[in-house]
Structures are given as C-alpha cells and as structure tokens.
Design brief:
Blueprint: H1 3-17, E1 60-77, E2 80-98, E3 103-115, H2 120-129, E4 146-150, E5 157-159, E6 163-166, E7 170-176, E8 183-190, E9 206-219, E10 222-234, E11 248-259, E12 264-273, H3 282-285, E13 288-298, E14 303-312, E15 321-330
Antiparallel strand pairs: 1-2, 1-15, 2-3, 2-4, 3-6, 3-7, 4-5, 7-8, 8-9, 9-10, 10-11, 11-12, 12-13, 13-14, 14-15
Length: about 325
C-alpha cells in the first residue's frame, strides 16, 4: 500500500550510502526547514523557502526534497462550496551557486503530482485506533481525487483526474548582510511554468522579499541555534483558482535546533502566513500557522539527510499532516 513511499525512501538511502565518508560532517544546524503549506489552493503561489544560504567553505549546493500531504476538506459557507479530497506529492530540485563573497543565486524546479493517493486507509486506521474524529472521511471512497470549488454565479474549479506536471519555477538571489552570515536578505520571483489545470501553478508571476536572522548558541553543553524570519509577497492574479486572491501576503518563521550528537540533530519550527484569499472559507481566507518537528543526519561533510513532519495549528488552513524527506549536497 505504501509502495511509492518505500520506493523513494530506498532511493534516498541508496544515494546517501553511495559515497565514501569524510572526516567532517555537513553543518545544517541553523538552516530552517523547508516547511510549505501544501493546500491545493495555497501551494500554487510562490512562497520562498527559508534556507540560510551557503556556508563559508562551499561554492554551491544541490538539494532534493519530497513532500507528501493528504487532503480532506468539505466546507460550505457564504455561497462558497469547497471539496479537497486527494493527495499532493511535490518533489523540489534546488541548485544554489555563490557568485561573490556575499551574493548567491538559486533555482528551484518542482514536480507536482495530484492524485487519490495511498494514505486514506492509514489515516482511517489511525483515527480508529485512537478514537479520533475522522472528519467524515468514511463517508467518501478511499483513494479518490476530487478538487471542487464553486462560488455561485462565478466560474468554478473541478478536477477528478490524476496527473503529474512541472510546477512553477522559483528564482532567488540572496545577500549576506554581515561577515558571519547571521543576516540573510533574499529576493525571489516565481515564474508561471506549471500546469494550472493540475494546480501545479497559479498562471502568474509572484515576487517576494524575506529577511532571515540566525545565531548559534549552546544548550546542555551541546551545539544549538535559533532563527527567525519575516517577509512579504506580491501575488499575481491567479488564473488557476477562481476566487480572487489578495495582492499582498505576509510570511514568517521561528525555529530552534539542537545537536546532541556529532552527526544527528533535531529542529522545531513555526511557519505562518496571512490569508491568500478574501473568502469566508477557512481553507482560503484564514491565516495559517504550521508546526514542524524534524531532524537531520549529517552523512559526511558534504551531505545531510533530513526528515520532518508538518502539522497545522490552525485547523483547515493547511493540510492536517505533511511529511518531508530531503537530501542535500554542498560542494
């Protein structure tokens, strides 16, 4: 049932084990995790990630992440009707390159799959074991894809066919504001390269500016770090989702990390964004706050494997749970 998940875990494990170990270990202590709201109506926009940039000894970095989110939302309010029933798998391929002592540039290419998925049975079992509410999941067929939005006389959105597509490409330029790389200013533009009918893109360009502050410290005699960031996005008018989106959105992040072992560390992070739409539905018109718990294994001085689980703290503003696995190389 989870053959697709197992396949990607095996692929990442094989890649991780393929090289010879080095004397040191990759240092991702103060790098924020790449948490993302994968709600189908939100993920089409260009929310930049919060990477901390390249370290002092690396000229480039390659990163691949796989994100999985299960959706089940039924809502109707104020003349709007919404159904999100399906799964989003999103694979991101990122290359970052230093172009001077203070500037670096990066390109992120996502591949998005929308389909019925494999997690419905797992989630139903989890709810049953712990006697948790299932949000009426049992009233709908398992493994079904249906994305629907209707606002009365206006245009709507409806999709029941699975598909895979290139997403919207993101280009960024990052500036280190100090010699210690504790302050990072990033400029981002998202290009409309994704398939709009598959909700792999918005059909318009988005631009954003973010500021990240991070610092290392010690806790229980072990390395630790904290970081926070704030930013603003200017959104193009979406040609994908029929509800008119807002022009300006604020985003923010706060996180802590701790490295109790030489190769292994843990992180806890909060991500937030303001509403993307003027809508009476919580899924569209509500501020979202995401909590992420994860960790990393520094395979050697160039590679690190990360795993994270993302939970919505404001119900219905994001998927209940998202899972992420990532592997990065610096060279």
């Amino acid at each position: 049932m989870l053959q697709y998940v197992r396949r990607w875990v095996v692929v990442l494990a094989v890649i991780a084990a393929s090289a010879v170990s080095h004397a040191g270990y990759a240092d991702v202590l103060s790098d924020p995790m790449r948490a993302r709201n994968l709600s189908p109506a939100i993920a089409i926009f260009g929310v930049p990630s919060w990477e901390g940039g390249l370290d002092a000894v690396s000229d480039s970095r390659f990163l691949v992440t796989g994100d999985l989110a299960s959706h089940f939302r039924l809502n109707q309010r104020g003349g709007e009707t919404l159904i999100f029933d399906g799964e989003t798998w999103r694979f991101n391929f990122v290359y970052e390159r230093r172009i001077s002592s203070r500037w670096s540039i990066a390109a992120e290419v996502p591949v998005v799959r929308q389909w019925g998925g494999v997690l419905d049975d797992v989630i139903d079992g989890w709810h049953s074991i712990f006697n948790l509410p299932d949000g009426k999941r049992n009233f709908r067929p398992e493994g079904e894809l249906q994305y629907l939005y209707d606002n009365g006389p206006g245009p709507g959105f409806f999709r029941v066919d699975s598909g895979t597509s290139l997403g919207d490409v993101m280009l960024t330029a990052a500036l280190n504001l100090d010699a210690e790389n504790d302050w990072l200013l990033k400029f981002a533009i998202k290009l409309p390269t994704g398939d709009e009918d598959l909700l792999a893109g918005s059909g318009e360009a988005d631009v954003g500016v973010t500021l990240l502050r991070r610092a290392e410290t010690r806790w229980r005699s072990k390395r630790a770090a904290w970081y926070w960031g704030a930013g603003v996005l200017h959104l193009g008018e979406s040609e994908t989702f029929p509800r008119v989106n807002r022009k300006w959105v604020g985003i923010g992040v706060f996180g802590l990390s701790w490295q109790p072992f030489s190769e292994v560390g843990f992180k806890a992070q909060l991500d937030a964004h303001t509403a993307f739409y003027d809508s009476a539905l919580d899924e569209l018109g509500r501020t979202a706050v995401l909590a992420t718990l994860g960790g990393w294994w520094a395979i050697d001085e160039q590679r690190a494997l990360t795993v994270a689980v993302v939970e919505d703290l404001i119900v219905r503003a994001a998927p209940d749970v998202s899972i992420q696995i990532g592997l990065e190389w610096t060279f």
